[in-house]
């Protein structure tokens, strides 16, 4: 497997970054294995789903961030599960946690969002975990696209657990407005669920136009990412993406 590029800032201000999207199942698995996987991927930004939401959730999330060499950016219980972590390379401009409309009898869903600067690049960031119900999921994808459009950024990355395979109408809706990073530059492995014997891709990372996708996929075979850790950490496999961000003029 060809290595993904390392993070760096170019002389013109453009930035190469690594973004990791990961459903961590409320940290009910082996948290030491989870931290090792995240740290080995060496991400600048981490888009989490099913972050802790209940008793001492902030402390649990802070411990995971520290063990992974990162800091909390936004989300958690305040976004109904999605959360963002970042390296100290990111300068935070603003954050916002968004709760989506609640359908009675179903789980509350939300979005963790932020605007950051890395090198000379400015980037909107969004983590999501969409509904198990097809109609609700499709509506949430529209709200996600609306939120990105209203963030006041030229470039953005969004990712998460879509609870749907490519070809589904929600996946297609997101793909009509954004670029699916796996399709743009497949790398590593494709399937993300379940961690034991994965047979489907329901987790994905998308970007707006103008961002170059350098590689995207499950980091099986990446140095430091042990298969035993991947299986012990949670029931999903992570998606690691390398991106080149153009320098921002604003």
How many H/I helical runs?
A: 6
- In the predicted model, the low-confidence regions spanning at least 5 consecutive residues are none
Q: Any idea what the shape is? A: globular
Residue share in β-strands: 25-35%
**What oligomerization state is this entry in?**
single chain
Radius of gyration from the alpha-carbon trace, in angstroms: 16 Å
Quickly give the structural class.
Answer: alpha+beta
Overall pLDDT confidence: 97
Please give a structural write-up.
The structure is a single chain. This protein has 250 residues and is an alpha+beta fold. It is built from six helices and 13 strands. It has helices at residues 31-41, 57-67, 134-149, 169-177, 181-184, 227-233; strands at 8-9, 15-23, 45-49, 71-75, 83-86, 91-99, 110-118, 121-129, 156-161, 179-180, 203-207, 212-217, 239-245. Strands 1, 2, 3, 4, 5, 12 and 13 form a seven-stranded mixed beta sheet that branches. Strands 6-7-8-9-11-10 form a six-stranded mixed beta sheet. Helix 3 links the parallel strand 8 (121-129) and strand 9. Helix 1 crosses helix 6 (227-233) and helix 3 packs parallel to helix 4. The chain is globular and about 50 Å long.
Gist?
The protein is of the alpha+beta class and 250 residues long. The chain contains 6 helices and 13 strands.
Pick out its properties:
single chain, 250 residues, alpha+beta, 7-stranded mixed beta sheet, 6 helices
Task: Summarize the SSE layout with pairings.
Layout: E1 8-9, E2 15-23, H1 31-41, E3 45-49, H2 57-67, E4 71-75, E5 83-86, E6 91-99, E7 110-118, E8 121-129, H3 134-149, E9 156-161, H4 169-177, E10 179-180, H5 181-184, E11 203-207, E12 212-217, H6 227-233, E13 239-245
Helix pairs in contact: 1-6, 3-4
């Amino acid at each position: 497997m060809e290595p993904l590029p390392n993070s760096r800032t170019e002389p013109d201000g453009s930035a190469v970054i690594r973004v990791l999207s990961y459903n961590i199942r409320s940290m009910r698995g082996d948290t030491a294995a989870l931290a090792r996987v995240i740290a080995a991927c060496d991400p600048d930004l981490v888009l989490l789903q099913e972050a802790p939401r209940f008793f001492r959730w902030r402390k649990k999330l802070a411990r995971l961030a520290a063990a992974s060499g990162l800091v909390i950016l936004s989300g958690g219980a305040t976004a109904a599960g999605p959360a963002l972590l970042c390296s100290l390379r990111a300068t935070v401009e603003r954050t916002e946690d968004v709760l989506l409309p609640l359908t009675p009898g179903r789980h509350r869903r939300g979005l963790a969002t932020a605007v950051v600067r890395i090198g000379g690049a400015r980037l909107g960031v969004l983590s999501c975990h969409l509904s198990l119900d097809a109609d609700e999921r499709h509506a949430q994808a529209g709200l996600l696209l609306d939120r990105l459009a209203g963030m006041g950024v030229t470039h953005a990355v969004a990712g998460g657990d879509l609870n749907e395979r490519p070809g589904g109408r929600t996946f297609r809706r997101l793909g009509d407005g954004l670029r699916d990073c796996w399709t743009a530059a497949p790398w590593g492995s494709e399937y993300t669920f379940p961690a034991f014997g994965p047979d489907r891709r329901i987790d994905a990372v998308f970007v707006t136009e103008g961002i170059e996708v350098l590689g995207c996929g499950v980091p099986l075979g990446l140095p430091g990412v042990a298969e035993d850790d991947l299986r012990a950490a949670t029931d999903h496999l992570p998606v690691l993406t390398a991106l080149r961000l153009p320098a921002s003029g604003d």
